[in-house]
Amino acid sequence: MHKDSVVNLRTRAAKSEVNIMAQMWITMGPQHPMTHGLWTLRVKVDGETIVDTDAELGYIHRGVEKICEARDFTQITPYCDRLCYVSAMTWANSYIYAAEDLLEAEVPERAEFIRLISAELQRLASHLMWLGAFGPDIGSLTLMTWCMRDREMFLDLLQELGGSRMHYNYPRIGGVKRDIPIGFADRMIAKVKLFEKRIEEYEMLLDESTIWLVRLQGVGYTKAEDMVEAGVSGPNVRAAGVNYDVRWAHPYSVYDQVDWEPAVEKPTSVKGADCYDRYRVRIEEMRQSSRMILDAIEKIPGGKNTNYSAGDEMILTKAPTRAPEGATGFSNYECTRGASQFYIQGGGEGRGKNPYRLSIRSPMFITIPYVADTMIGYKIADIPAIMGSFDPCIGETDR
């Protein structure tokens, strides 16, 4: 809903004595199927209509930024893995690029291709987790089983790289921990090509479902200009027609060397993007990630069937371990839910191995309060569809 409409609805509700008598606050959370994480949404309703909302965050704040000040630059990566457990690889990469900017580390081109491949495999796994959890919210239980089935393929591939299924600790300052295993490329190509066919099955299941369409279309409208003003990024803003993707607008790694294009929806309504548009943009984004992976593995320097030993200069260069006083590092990275940013300030003499300050910008910390406002004017039953369509992650939000 447009922010002016939100203000008007709140004003009318406050001025009407009849409405005030009929209104009540409902608390959803911190443990609630709709929240998809530990947080609370307080909703003020007039009958079945939402007239006000309040998002309460901070239940799982861990103080990650402060903890990192007491760790050296190589020890910070595992903490970034845990910022969002369904998108660990992208968050670790985001930190690594800031650390490499700070320490002025060089990265072998083969390692950059491996990082791109691992990040897009993670994006596929993350979007499948979102779609699988979103399905039951809307009434499609079949979708959960299909998505978890396909997500396993990509978790298996990520486990081959990092040795773990969730927290990989894979990227290193100056490269990656290990090269792709022998046979990995062929297994990955087969799975990605199979998944491209599975995407069509998802569309057949969902786009022909009356329940799916009724629950998503015309619900949760968001205007592009409002989201840009609020700082919303990623698939959610691209669903409203904004062609902004950090990988495309400010290319990092080797994204400018592979074949792909940003997934951008064109909303059919002048009211903006609805829940269906946000679903569609992620479906298209999975296609683009698959396209990138298949292109990158064919272009990887040294060949896709070569395996260099750990520490080889083809996958890892020796990087400085100390940052001079006053030095800063910054990264702007396209995570699965939007633009994540790291800012690191060097510690200087006596603290050269540790950051003096580390700051993290989470896309969901900005998005969740915005989403709460978009619910105003809709019905209570629309809350799961609206919130779920934005793909919230509380781990990265609270940090």
For this structure, what is the CATH class of the largest domain?
Mainly Alpha
Largest beta-sheet details: 3 strands, antiparallel
The unreliable regions are none
Examine the coordinates and then state which fold CATH places here, giving the name of the CATH topology of the largest domain: Cytochrome-c3 Hydrogenase, chain B
Strand order of the largest sheet: 1-2-3
Q: What's the CATH architecture name of the largest domain?
A: Orthogonal Bundle
Order of helices and strands: HHEEEHHHHHEEHHHHHHEEEHHH
By DSSP, the count of extended strands is 8
Helix content: 40-55%
Question: What form results from the Cα inertia axes?
Answer: globular
Number of domains: 2
Q: Beta-strand percentage?
A: 5-15%
The N- to C-terminal Cα distance equals: 29 Å
Oligomer: single chain
Q: Helix- and strand-based class?
A: alpha+beta
Question: Can you give the mean pLDDT?
Answer: 89
Describe the structure.
This protein has 399 residues and is α+β, with helices and mostly antiparallel strands. The chain has 2 domains: 1-60 and 366-399, no CATH class; 64-361, Orthogonal Bundle (Cytochrome-c3 Hydrogenase, chain B), CATH 1.10.645. It is built from 16 helices and 8 strands. It has helices spanning 3-15, 17-22, 64-68, 77-81, 88-103, 109-138, 141-162, 184-207, 210-216, 224-230, 235-238, 246-249, 275-299, 363-374, 383-389, 394-398; strands at 23-28, 40-46, 49-56, 171-172, 175-176, 328-335, 338-346, 355-361. Strands 1-2-3 form a 3-stranded antiparallel sheet. Strand 2 (40-46) and strand 3 form a beta hairpin. Helix 5 packs antiparallel against helix 6. It is globular. The two termini are 29 Å apart. The mean pLDDT is 89.
